[in-house]
């Protein structure tokens, strides 16, 4: 039986955080044992919203690679590469942009929501509007059968299928229609109670040191109606409790019970959560230190991944250009 190909990427806009870990990376680690997986650092995508400030981009790319490898991605089981190392991505994106109606891009739900999220940034650029076309090129380049996504990314996969259908109908049946591999994961709030996002500067990074984690957790928003420890709590509105449900599920019911009965204070809850997170990340941090000592190893892994990915990317681009009469 043919092993299905999976494709996914992650943006290196700042340090990867716990939301990235439970929402994507841990799922990728499971998928690499079952599928033909291609995972990439989406540095071109990072430019669509962070084009004004790139002084830390190289460092962020390197840290993303270390985080992925330290969290369990194995170059012996999957292909890991950097998007910009393959110019085929940009060229296929350009070809697709010729046939993609503007109206398709304007109606993508995440377009408006991202603009609202990234207030203060000038996102009135072609690159930002057209990033779903680049995403389609990423996926269709490798003729991926499955794309692991969250619920909010489903419109992007449908747009990718629409672009593939349009290309196939105009020129030649080259691109199979990818299916979404819906990843259902618990929502993880940020330090301020909003969605954990680098845009909001409310994250706990995968690479944060124990003392940093302790400090960040101590600032987390809890039940706003609970002023004193003797006040009965409402864990369902508490950000700290959401973390217990993800990282200490076996304790979450007891924590909720003690909170509602005012037998557990918020300070105690935060201190315990910090210890839980530090313990959860300890194996990742241990591996991270080893990778940090050997930057040549990281470069070698990405270079090898680029070589493997290029075999497919070059062939797909050639087929697309031939179909369009360019060669």
TrEMBL record:
Q: Catalysed reaction per UniProt?
A: tRNA(Trp) + L-tryptophan + ATP = L-tryptophyl-tRNA(Trp) + AMP + diphosphate + H(+)
Q: Which UniProt keywords apply?
A: Aminoacyl-tRNA synthetase, ATP-binding, Cytoplasm, Ligase, Nucleotide-binding, Protein biosynthesis
Q: Which Enzyme Commission numbers does its entry carry? A: 6.1.1.2
- List positions binding ATP: 11-13, 19-20, 150-152, 188, 195-199
PROSITE patterns reported for this sequence: AA_TRNA_LIGASE_I (PS00178)
Give its localization: Cytoplasm
Please tell me which top-level EC class this enzyme sits in.
ligase
Q: What does this protein do?
A: Catalyzes the attachment of tryptophan to tRNA(Trp).
State the name under which the record lists this protein. Tryptophan--tRNA ligase
Organism, as annotated: candidate division WOR-1 bacterium RIFCSPLOWO2_02_FULL_46_20
Encoding gene, per UniProt annotation = trpS
């Amino acid at each position: 039986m043919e092993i299905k190909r999976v494709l996914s990427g992650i943006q290196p806009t700042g340090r990867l955080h716990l939301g990235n870990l439970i929402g994507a990376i841990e799922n990728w680690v499971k998928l690499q044992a079952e599928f033909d997986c291609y995972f990439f650092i989406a540095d071109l995508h990072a430019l669509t919203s962070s084009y004004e400030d790139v002084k830390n981009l190289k460092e962020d790319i390197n840290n993303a690679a270390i985080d992925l490898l330290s969290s369990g991605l194995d170059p012996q089981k999957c292909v890991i590469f950097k998007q910009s190392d393959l110019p085929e991505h940009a060229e296929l994106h350009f070809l697709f942009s010729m046939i993609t109606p503007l109206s398709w891009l304007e109606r993508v739900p995440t377009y408006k929501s991202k603009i609202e999220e990234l207030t203060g940034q000038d996102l009135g650029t072609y690159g930002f509007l057209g990033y779903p076309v680049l995403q389609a090129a990423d996926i269709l380049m490798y003729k991926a059968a499955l794309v692991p996504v969250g619920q909010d990314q489903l419109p992007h996969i449908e747009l990718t299928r629409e672009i593939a259908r349009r290309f196939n109908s105009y020129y030649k049946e080259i691109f199979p229609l990818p299916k979404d591999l819906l990843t259902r994961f618990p929502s993880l709030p940020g330090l301020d109670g909003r969605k954990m996002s680098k845009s909001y500067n409310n994250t706990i990074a995968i690479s944060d040191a124990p003392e940093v984690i302790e400090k960040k957790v101590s600032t987390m928003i809890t039940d706003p109606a609970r002023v004193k420890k003797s006040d009965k709590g409402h864990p369902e509105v508490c950000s700290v409790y959401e973390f217990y449900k993800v990282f200490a599920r076996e304790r979450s019911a007891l924590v909720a019970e003690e909170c509602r009965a005012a037998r557990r204070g918020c300070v105690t809850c935060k201190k315990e959560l910090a210890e839980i997170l530090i313990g959860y990340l300890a194996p990742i941090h241990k591996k991270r230190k080893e990778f940090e000592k050997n930057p040549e190893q990281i470069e070698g892994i990405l270079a090898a991944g680029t070589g493997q990915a290029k075999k497919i990317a070059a062939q797909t681009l050639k087929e697309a250009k031939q179909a369009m009469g360019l060669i």
